[in-house]
Amino acid sequence: MRIALFLSAWLVCLGALAVPNEPATLDRSTWPESLTSPALFDVASRAEILTFSRALLSSEILDENALKQRLGLKTINLEAIEAVRKRMWQRLLANYKLAQQSCDQDASFCYYINDLDSLRKQAGKFEITDDSFYAAWAQPSRMFHQRYLDEQLRLAALFPQISSEIGFFSEQEFSGEGMNDRLFMLTFDSGPSALPGTTDWLTDYLRTQSMSATFFVLGSALQTRLDQGNPQAVQALYKGQCVGVQGWEYRSHSHWQDWQDSILRSSALVRQVLAQRYVPLFRPPYGQRRADSGAFFQAQGLRVALWDIDSQDMAASLTAEQSAHRVLSLMLLWRHGVIAFHDTQVKVRSALPWLLKATAQSGLGWEECAAFR
């Protein structure tokens, strides 16, 4: 019976899916100013917010069939799409109001926007002229935001049939949407890497920057590290960092019969070896988990740590530079949030230093990982 139910669910999902587009990215060199002050961060933020708002507004004129065609799906959840759009509009309005606060220092992209109607109206007529200082950025930005919006609407269209970071199932789940303005948290998935690997480089690099991050480890990968060395070496690896769990294997926890055991085994191993570094957080691989899993996580004292800024560093089509540029563009758009990288990807060795250098004078902050204990 379990096998039959699984195959049935898998076939339904397969019928709903088409191959998604390549992840969106935006060449930040098209933006003519470095983010050398909080005011210049706000200028770029206002521009990204208005461009995305225009893309969001334009998507609302599409009927169901047009949306299916645009998203490459045979079936879509219109109710979930509308819920995500509504949440986006509220966040965009709040973010633009925050970005407006420096308009007395630089008035670029400053318009009278004080409510959702005025934001929608301004988004509808927002354009960059060919002779503008920002002309080289305008068209690449429009393309980026349309593709990024399609990514998000596609996740919404499949939710909750295929779960993801786009929505929530219980109070045990959170993303970075509730964080303070200009505050970001770094997270890394699917480690630790094999010896010697990117995880070692990354934790050393973060310590040299006096920064911390949350590492969501796989129980099997952690056990391999222990088999290759000793507990003291693993403890030294994560010194000053926080360690949550991602299950025993990197696979979807939505239709896996042993999903609970996967979480319990990995949590027990981390608590045993890294008691001082452990945080009671579970990061679902691919963002996929069961809709009825809230009671389990509550009983285990675990929270489900989602994200709202995805580096897409696992995508073969994105270089390290493109992944970093994507993250910065989304930081400007959302102004706060949880950033998801993978410490098994060598791309992070160049992506993260570039990101920190590009934002070093922009007035943003990096949340200590212990804040989500």
Automatic annotation (TrEMBL):
TM region(s), chain numbering: none
Xref: CDD domains: CE4_NodB_like_6s_7s
Record key words, sorted: Signal
Pfam families tied to this protein: Polysacc_deac_1
PROSITE patterns tied to this protein: NODB (PS51677)
GO terms under biological process: carbohydrate metabolic process
GO molecular function: hydrolase activity, acting on carbon-nitrogen (but not peptide) bonds
Signal peptide, first to last residue: 1-18
UniProt keyword Nucleus, yes or no: no
Entry superkingdom: Bacteria
Residues covered by the NodB homology domain: 182-369
UniProt-listed PANTHER family: GLYCOSYL TRANSFERASE-RELATED
Protein name according to UniProt: Peptidoglycan/xylan/chitin deacetylase, PgdA/CDA1 family
Source organism of this protein record: Pseudomonas taetrolens
